[in-house]
Amino acid sequence: MENQNKITFSRRSFIRTSALASGGILIGFNFFTSCKEAAVPPVDVSQLNFNDFNAFIKIADNGYVTIFSPNPEIGQGVKTSMPMIIAEELDVPWEHVSVEQGALDTNNFTRQVAGGSQSIRFGWNALRETGATAKQMLVNAAAAKWGIEASSCSASNGVITSPTGETLGYGDVVNDAAQLEVPENVTLKATKDYKIIGKDAVNVDIDKIITGEPLFGLDYKAEGMKYVSVMRPPAFGQKVSSFDDTNAKSINGVSDVVQFGDKIAVLASNTWAAMKGKKALDVQWTNDGTLESTADHDKKLNAILDGNQLDIRREDGNVKKAFAEADQVLERTYESPFLPHNCMEPMNFYANVTADKVHLVGPIQTPAGTARRIANLIDRDEKDIHLEMTRMGGGFGRRLYGDFALEAAEISNITKQAVKVVFSREDDMAAGIYRPAIKYRIAASLKDGKVTGYHLKEAAINNNMYGLIPHFFPAGAIDNYKVETGNYRSNITTGAWRAPYTNFLAYAEQSFFDELAELLEVDAVQLRLDLLKNVKDGQDPDIQYSAKRMTDTIKLAAEKSNWGKTREGVYQGFAAYYSHNTHVAEVVDITLKNGYPSVEKVTVAVDCGIVVNPTGAKNQVEGGVIDGIGHAMYGDFSFDKGKPQDVNFNTYRLIRMRETPTVHTYFVENDLSPTGLGEPGLPPAGGALANAIKAATGQLLLKQPFMSVLKKYEANLKV
Amino acid sequence: MASYNLKVNGKSVNINVDDDTPLLWVLRDELNLVGTKFGCGIAQCGACTVHLDGVAVRSCSLPVSSLEGANITTIEGLAKDELHPVQEAWKELDVPQCGYCQAGQMMTASSFLKDNPNPSNEDIRNAMNGNLCRCASYNRIEKAVALAAKKMS
């Protein structure tokens, strides 16, 4: 068990305070890195530049607290949950806290990123320490006022109390506290004393969302700004040969047409004119590379799996020997297509490049890296760049890539105008940075009723599984174990998509285990529990999943889902997966309607340590599970001669309400440090669904989307 | 360019735009009502849903030329003196994740509930089927529509 109260940084190195000109105190702090010796927060809150600190707390002289939340909000809930952690240790009523999105500058950062479900995990210590330090300063100030020992005072709910029962509000002492040294030793709360952490806190932007106030990148406007629609090559592997913009320029509102690289920007006084102008461009394209089709990728990936040019990523024991001595071998190949992200808010960004500065506003998961790339692109000093983050209408990995922000900066730099690049849905789907097509070939050797060997090969486009994925379960559970990967370099742009690699790998492996259980004639859940018994926690630094935590999680899911004890006509499928430091187990219940599987219910057990904000946490799990089911069922995306075959929701199918199961989420209760939830709910969903469909219909699903096989049943449905 | 008169959230407005301009862009770019969202532009996702004479419509596919004199309500006008029961329910159940599609969801729900005060779960699922939520907050949307119906009865 980890010790939650362990101090891992020196506070002096990452917290600084200053008295605010307007009264109150400003506390600047940094995650994961220390500040420069000379760094001091501004005395004027409007001068926050996030240069030396990436997060700030302001305590006003009325005791109200404003927390400038550092990490980008993409719907994963950190704009609510990260401030909750500060407020807990600061010990203020949550109602006295307001949250603002911090802006960004590019110096001295480490992790002002939304990605990998890591915001809470990495922020946990720094956020608690900062809140506790601020509280201690307020207590010290009150004690000094009373002329007594600080250790004899207590503070709770924004009020400091002396041993004789005198009280002072935080606001009463905040100006004194601002003059004090940052204390070196503070005590963090015990879990049992939490008043905010573990209680439901509604999304801090809720009032703006439900009343339609401007909040997202697409909503941002600046005086005189031009709306821009960008024409990009229609196929990967093409470039501009020539173009005629006569018709485009004749459209009301269109002011400029400029080429930059292999793209053409149409600037207009409103979005509609910009979009019409783009459509009116007459462009001749020429080939500038191979025009790849899905059938080509299929062949390339198969050749990788069949060949011997793979890289070994983990190898235990002797897989070759295990297979040679096996009673039986099971081998399967699983396939998945490319997938676009399809954030509901299409990509967009505002840029205004002037002689003095570069002003950027928009939805971006990687503000620091993007600002740096823009500085390079337009040859400016990084300190000229001011980037403001808006709330994001979904991310799913797509907004890790700043291509749309770079476009905006480049167009503004060329035209010397303030511009807002807006993607149409067609632009968004056709100029994607896709989840690449991947194939897995998995083989297992069985002997004397046991799994003796496991061999997994990954063939993917452009990249392969990263980090510790090769060491995920069943690494450690099977003596002879091997993971190999190979890739094919394509000119189609690919990147991270919610739970990269594991979003598909988990389905492949968890379907495979279901078949293994059948061959071994053991219950599917029991097979996982038996295998986990072989894993010794803490023995291998690369194996970071915990057999104990996974076992508890699996048992909770089995119990809550009535695994194996459902009424007639209900078929269940099971899957469990560890990713992004969180353990998850899921049971999918389906019924058949005229032979077509209807997904009724998903029971989910999650071990993410302490649950900071239960309502937000459940929202992430529900969303992740349904997202996983939706894409496993329907997500299909192919290319013909470099050209995406679907560019809008009329042909590209996303899960809709009628196809949605009810998700029941249960958390394993413990006192362990919290881990993230933006991604981990997704990976097991596809496998649990495939296993339920197999239980119901006998249909083995080796390929996503499942609709490619299930279409024949769907025709029977009366809708 | 032509001049059009609309009534938006109870206020008369006059705008000068091209006649094929969809209502969505009139609202967002001309009238600064950016609560109505752009999602697909082809009436497939529902993010742009507004009320035309009380009925839910897709503003991305309605040219302004067909709307002379029309009475439009957007998310900004859904609350009268206090929040609409749909908005209250959305807040109470903490429905949004990213929040982008939710204005459209609420406009569809409020129009549906006006004509169907006692919907079954199946009615709700059918009524909301046209609105995509990429974060898949569907479970909470379903519950919130039922809660709003209860609040309105």
What do these coordinates show?
The complex is a heterodimer of chains A (719) and B (153). With 719 residues, chain A is α+β, with helices and mostly antiparallel strands. In chain A, 28% of the residues lie in helices and 24% in strands. Chain A contains 17 helices and 28 strands. In chain A, the strands form 7 sheets. In chain A, strands 11-12-9-19-16-17-18 form a 7-stranded mixed sheet, sandwiched between helices. In chain A, strands 1-2-3-4-5 form a 5-stranded mixed sheet, covered by helices on one side. A 5-stranded mixed sheet of chain A has the order 14-22-21-20-15. In chain A, helix 1 (78-90) packs parallel to helix 2 and helix 2 crosses helix 3. In chain A, 55% of the residues are buried. Residues 1-9 and 105-114 of chain A have low confidence and may be disordered. Chain B is built from 5 helices and 5 strands, in the order E-E-H-E-E-E-H-H-H-H. With 153 residues, chain B is α+β, with helices and mostly antiparallel strands. In chain B, strand 3 (49-52) and strand 4 (55-58) form a beta hairpin. In chain B, 34% of the residues lie in helices and 16% in strands. In chain B, strands 2-1-5-3-4 form a 5-stranded mixed sheet, with helices on both faces. Chains A and B meet through helix 4, helix 6 and helix 15 of A and helix 1, helix 2, helix 3 and helix 5 of B.
List the helices and strands and how they pair.
The complex is a heterodimer of chains A (719) and B (153).
Chain A: E1 15-19, E2 25-29, E3 55-59, E4 65-69, H1 78-90, E5 97-101, H2 119-146, E6 154-156, E7 159-161, E8 167-169, H3 170-177, H4 206-211, E9 226-231, E10 238-244, H5 246-249, E11 254-260, E12 263-268, H6 271-280, E13 282-287, H7 294-306, E14 311-316, H8 319-324, E15 328-336, E16 348-353, E17 358-362, H9 367-377, E18 385-389, H10 403-415, E19 419-422, H11 425-430, E20 438-447, E21 450-461, E22 480-488, H12 502-520, H13 524-532, H14 547-560, E23 571-579, E24 582-593, E25 596-607, H15 614-634, E26 639-640, E27 643-644, E28 662-667, H16 683-697, H17 707-714
Parallel strand pairs in A: 4-5, 9-19, 17-18, 21-22, 25-28
Antiparallel strand pairs in A: 1-2, 2-3, 3-4, 6-7, 7-8, 9-12, 10-13, 11-12, 14-22, 15-20, 16-17, 16-19, 20-21, 23-24, 24-25, 26-27
Chain B: E1 2-8, E2 11-17, H1 23-30, E3 49-52, E4 55-58, E5 71-73, H2 85-92, H3 102-115, H4 121-127, H5 138-152
Parallel strand pairs in B: 1-5
Antiparallel strand pairs in B: 1-2, 3-4, 3-5
Helix pairs in contact in B: 2-5, 3-5
